[in-house]
Amino acid sequence: MDNTAVDSSLRTVEWKNNKVIMIDQTKLPNQLVFVEYDDFNQVADAIKTLIVRGAPAIGVSGAFGLALAVLQSKATTKDELISDLEIARKILYSTRPTAVNLGWGLDKIMKIAKTGETVEQIKKLVIETAKKMAEDDIEINKAMGKNGSILFDDNDTIMTHCNAGALATVAYGTALGVIRATRESGKNIKVIATETRPIQQGSRLTAFELKHDGFDVSLIPDTAVGYSMANGLVNKVVVGADRIVKTGHVFNKIGTYQVATMAKQHGIPFYVAAPLSTIDLETKAEDVIIEMRKGNEVTGIGDKKTAPDDINVINPAFDMTPPELISGIITEKGVARAPYEESIPKLFQAN
């Protein structure tokens, strides 16, 4: 399949005619629907309600949100415009606390905006930078894919959890980018996707995307990870990340820790694929805020109730996988291996 076709058909977030176009991921896999926004508040809402999700995609969406904010602003001076942008930045930043890329995308735009002298110049700088961040995301994913593909062998069956594919990024993907690059290098591979309860990103998004691109993909319930590994159905695991701290602790979709623990038990290599923008060198693992989501994601599917009324629900969106369970962290600058406190900072010095 022609890669350009894949890139363009599943372009998760895009800037067109001064509007932000997104795939509405809440409608997948039943419908491939594109939504159009011209107000940064709509983008904030889209991030909050998971119309767009996946750390890299959220980072770029935040940047595009600020690009809309500069167009919406009635400011006539630089100070007024920066003040309007600050308001928009706060609203966008408050949407998802765990993914580090959102703060990265917003901060990058704010820094650039402050270098502009006039209102017009700031507007141009912000829009151009946001568009370039989207293009860079695809190039970064392709570099990451190449670096990761050498870790996988012909005829491997690779397990992945949640969706770290084209739909979690601008296009191509992180963990699925590695899987795509492995196939592009001529190796024959199969994929096992976990359903990823309670939002079903694995069944709705990963399975949809891999089937769309002609991969041999099988879907399993989250509870069958141990079974699949114990029965020799899996050779390797690759997942994405929403935040990685410098000690090598990885924050990713809830259930990742269980997959990693099970992989360790069965001697299966467990890799994480993420761009450097997902790595947070400042925060300690214990200080990362784990987003808690609404109970109704667990007590029903759509309008169908699957639990008793008024039941207590604990619904964390993410969990933490400790570094001793991780075989390597694949980035666009190379693969970091333990001890991560030494290898992760080195990636930032690589040219």
Brief rundown of the structure:
InterPro entries: IF-2B-related, IF-M1Pi, IF_2B-like_C, Initiation_fac_2B_a/b/d, M1Pi_N, NagB/RpiA_transferase-like. With 351 residues, the protein is an alpha/beta fold.
Q: Which H/E pattern describes the elements? A: HEEEHHHHHEHEHEHEEEHEEHEEEEEH
- Whole-number radius of gyration? 20 Å
What's the number of extended β-strand segments?
A: 16
Strand order across the biggest sheet?
A: 6-5-4-7-10-15-16
CA-to-CA gap between the ends?
32 Å
- What's the CATH C level of the largest domain? Alpha Beta
Q: Beta-sheet strand percentage?
A: 15-25%
Number of helices: 12
Question: Would you identify the regions where 5 or more consecutive residues have pLDDT less than 50?
Answer: 1-8
Number of domains: 2
Task: Determine the CATH superfamily of the largest domain.
Answer: Translation initiation factor eif-2b, domain 2
**Overall pLDDT, averaged?**
95
Q: Which CATH architecture of the largest domain? A: 3-Layer(aba) Sandwich
Helix content: 40-55%
Largest sheet: 7 strands, mixed
Structural class: alpha/beta
The CATH topology of the largest domain: Rossmann fold
What is the 3D shape?
A: globular
